[in-house]
Amino acid sequence: MKKVFSFLIAALAVSTTQAQDINDAYRYSSEQLGGTARYRALSGAFGALGGDLSAMSANPAGSAVFSTGEVGATFGNSSIRNNSLYFGTLATDSKSKFDLSQIGGVLVFNNQSKEANWRKIAVGFNVENSNSFNNNVFVAGFNPNNSIDKYFLSYANGVTLDDIEVYDGENVTEVYRWLGENRGYGAQQAFLAYQAYLINPISNDPENTQYVSNASYGTVDQEYFMATTGYNYKITFNFATQYKDKLYLGANLNAHAIDFSKYTYLSEIGFASNSTIQEIGFENDLKTYGSGFSFQLGAIAKLSDELRIGATYQSPTWYNINDELIQSLFTVSEVDNGDGTFTEFTDVVEPNVINIYETYKLMTPSKITGSLAYVFGKYGLISFDYSRKNYANAEFRPTSDSYFRDQNSIISNQLKDASSYRIGGELRVDNVSLRAGYRLEESPYKNERTVGELNGYSLGIGYNFGAVSLDIAYDHAKQDSYRSLYNVGLTDAATTSSKFNNVMMSIGIKL
């Protein structure tokens, strides 16, 4: 009855074991190409140009380039296709979504005095999806090394048998919850495996802490499915000003909102004929939500009527994040009756408990951007942006927490400085604008394999009706990754080649 008694005491507590790792730090530190169709068509090379709502979010000085106020919105379809190779087997999955990805506006207040040095003030507001998490990954193959039993054993060894037993007067839900509140995530994994008869103790002593697997295998037929959804929205409040005809200065205050869900399901069959375990299914449903704050400072200088340079500082983003997790495990076992026949058992361990983890803090790295643009009068332009971000500076907090210190050490050892290069051009023929761009983003990982470099190109067209403008863009990118299915035990990795395709349309209205 000790678990029930402790449960009654700790019923209002939350789980104190963190489930955060380097993958979370990278996910919330990275950004995708987003924004208006014109911005996308130039692959985001807008740091020295301005005059675009998304350019304003990239370099806050850009809103002062607007000659009049403007409002606009962007919507379209985003898709991703993943080809995953796992122990020689190729599997494919894809996902697409239609949504509103950007909306914003800017007001311009011109100084009526012709003698004034400060020519205008601009105030802007913009909301855009800086990172979409919509994705499906399917992995399948015959693993000659490991089963998910290694994952559970890595957590179980060291956990006492007394903790993961269900005694009279207790039930699965109560014990699983009690373990999360008093022993942590690892003990919950041990409990799932023990109650599903995937592992057995080497001794029935309540103080036993060593376990063995009931699964025997040469190779295991594994299928792994991951579906993620959600977004990381950036809400920008902008202020900018123009000094004479040569200098634009601006600042942004940014609010960030995270809504992320990840569902994973691992299925295993193909165990040895003498294995007690014949089938395993492991399900995890993670939900993450959070909010953050950052700021930006930017400048654009006109060195001549044609040549412009820009510089932007993007501060770290300081997040407060919450995680919630639901798990279940089922196994199919065959027990030898001793007379040449077998009895099949199906065990489903489904606690129906939402693990609510304590709020944690994440500081993502800062970024600096230098930009150069050449404007050919009314005929067009060419623009280049260079950015640098040190992903190794991402940090979980509080740093006094031993788990977070370990994760921060992993981040600093595995991540690195990464540069990105963007170039874009625009050709204007009367009211029609033709656009194209290219971008290269270096890998943030020192091994340059876990997440590889990203290459992408973009195309676009726009038409200016006068008070209304209509822009359409297509951008394509590809990136390879090599990631383990799980962080411990079953750490075999799949190589995934991802291709991103986006078609966007923006409507702008001058005020």
What best-fitting shape do the alpha-carbon axes yield? elongated
The helix tally amounts to 9
State which percent range the strand residues make up: over 45%
CATH superfamily: Outer membrane protein transport protein (OMPP1/FadL/TodX)
Query: Stretches where pLDDT falls below 50 for ≥5 residues?
Result: 4-18
Distance between the termini: 71 Å
Describe the strand arrangement of the main beta sheet, using strand numbers: 1-2-3-7-8-9-10-15-16-18-19-20-21-22
How many domains is the backbone divided into? 1
Q: Describe the main β-sheet briefly.
A: 14 strands, antiparallel, barrel
**Rounded Rg:** 27 Å
Mean pLDDT: 93
Based on helices, strands and strand pairing, what is the structural class?
mainly beta
The count of strands amounts to 22
CATH architecture: Beta Barrel
CATH topology: Porin
Instruction: Give the fraction of residues assigned to helices.
Output: 10-25%
- Broad CATH class: Mainly Beta
Secondary-structure map:
Elements: H1 2-10, H2 22-29, H3 37-41, H4 53-58, E1 70-86, E2 89-110, E3 118-132, E4 135-143, H5 148-156, H6 161-164, H7 172-182, H8 185-195, E5 199-201, E6 211-213, E7 220-243, E8 247-269, E9 277-302, E10 307-314, E11 318-336, E12 342-349, E13 355-356, E14 360-363, E15 367-375, E16 380-390, E17 395-397, H9 402-414, E18 417-429, E19 432-441, E20 451-464, E21 468-484, E22 493-510
Antiparallel strand pairs: 1-2, 1-22, 2-3, 3-7, 4-7, 5-6, 7-8, 8-9, 9-10, 9-11, 10-15, 11-12, 11-13, 11-14, 14-17, 15-16, 16-18, 18-19, 19-20, 20-21, 21-22
Helix pairs in contact: 1-7, 5-8, 7-8
GO molecular function, one term: long-chain fatty acid transporting porin activity
Subcellular location: Cell outer membrane
InterPro entries: OMPP1/FadL/TodX (IPR005017), UPF0164 (IPR005362)
